[in-house]
């Protein structure tokens, strides 16, 4: 399977807002397949299209046990609670810090064929979903905490 190059912190692409997917075609299928392969190769648990340089609202998440969730054009419907836990990102290699996230999230989205669905997640998967949706809006986990802000300063990036 073909993999793609990961866009790393400091590259302005990561700060752009991704556009909705409008064509649920073969090209989208290939993008999702290659995002998944890239995520597996890099040992990530989630990946957004912007991280491979494609500014479209598409996400793949590893649910464990060889199950993967593809999320297109997600909207957050509901969140509950707040929990702080460690987070990292394929675009920010080697840096981790605790980030507050909702404990529960419900989203509505589309699958690769354009079929709408809802998805509920708690704890670790809820964290992944929120982290990846942030990517679609140009937001990174290092934006949330003092540690993250210090890291950006140290690296001389925004
Ligand atoms: Ni990330």
Helix content: 25-40%
Q: Within the CATH hierarchy, at the fold level, what is the topology?
A: Peptide Deformylase
Number of helices: 3
Order of helices and strands: HEEEEEEEHH
Give keywords:
158 residues, alpha+beta, Peptide Deformylase, five-stranded antiparallel β-sheet, two-stranded antiparallel ribbon, 3 helices, 30% strand, globular, binds nickel (II) ion
Task: Note down, in words, how this protein is organized.
This protein has one domain (12-155): Peptide Deformylase, CATH 3.90.45.10. The protein has three helices and seven strands; from the N terminus they run H-E-E-E-E-E-E-E-H-H. The chain has helices at residues 26-41, 123-136, 146-155, and strands at 46-48, 58-64, 67-80, 83-87, 97-101, 104-110, 116-122. The strands form two sheets. Strands 1-2-3-6-7 form a five-stranded antiparallel sheet, with helices on both faces. The longest helix is centred in the N-terminal third of the chain and has 16 residues, at 26-41. The protein starts with 25 loop residues before the first helix and ends with a helix. The mean pLDDT is 97. The chain binds nickel (II) ion.
Helices and strands in order:
Blueprint: H1 26-41, E1 46-48, E2 58-64, E3 67-80, E4 83-87, E5 97-101, E6 104-110, E7 116-122, H2 123-136, H3 146-155
Antiparallel strand pairs: 1-2, 2-3, 3-6, 4-5, 6-7
Bound molecules: nickel (II) ion (NI).
Nickel (II) ion (NI) binds next to helix 2.
Concise overview:
By secondary structure, this protein is of the alpha+beta class. The chain contains three helices and seven strands. Helix content is 25%, strand content 30%.
